[in-house]
Write a structure and sequence with these properties.
Elements (H helix, E strand, L loop, with lengths): L16 H15 L6 H6 L12 E6 L5 H22 L7 H8 L5 E6 L5 E12 L6 E11 L8 H16 L3 E7 L3 H10 L3 E2 L4 H4 L9 E7 L9
Parallel strand pairs: 4-5
Antiparallel strand pairs: 1-2, 2-3, 3-4, 5-7, 6-7
Helix pairs in contact: 1-5, 3-4
Length: 233
Amino acid sequence: MPRKRHCNALRKVWYPETIAKCTAEAVCAVFNQDATDSVESDKYVFLQNKLDPKYRLKHYMGNEAPKEVMEAIFSLTKDNMSQLYDAVGFLGGWRDNTKLRELSAAKTHILELTDDNGKLVGFVSYRFLLISDCQPTTEVCYIYELQVNASRRSSGVGRYLMKAAEVIAKEAGAKKLMCTVLKTNNRAVAFYRNKCGFTDDESDPSSIDFEHRHDYIYYILKLDIAPLVTIQT
């Protein structure tokens, strides 16, 4: 889901893309047991595949993803989110072209998890941004989408994808993860807050304008990036 409030500050320089791509490829190699570098394997040992031995993890840039990959992640996103968008009029309601442009943008990173038949299990998409709304200019990894196939929910997939994104963001120099979550998306709000430890960001409109907090239909959440830790799946 795209952020609602951000500013690409021009006074601060940050070039995260190369290290982010390299780290994503390393994480995929460890998950898929393709890593040949022992140092690399040891560093990301906690990101080994403990979900399902038949799963595969791949990284794409939005403008380089194969057509079938883009179609699958778009379809999953639409299935999961279109009614939520329309119900509250978020961004004017669901629009196919808008979401496709977002997912296929050159700066969009995608981690795609598939099963042994190549069927999409889930994915996370994110971008690296400089945010200066209600805070000093800060390096951020903004989570645009985290979507899991309904049949694979509550199996650790979402938590794994979020931890992988956090690791990549940390290596790229991001200070925090951020995301926009609709208040009506109770499952997502609970996931981010309770399972991942997200809190209200400084730019969250409900926190800034407390008197009118009920007028806002979304939260802007953050997760300050901490030292790497192991996860339970």
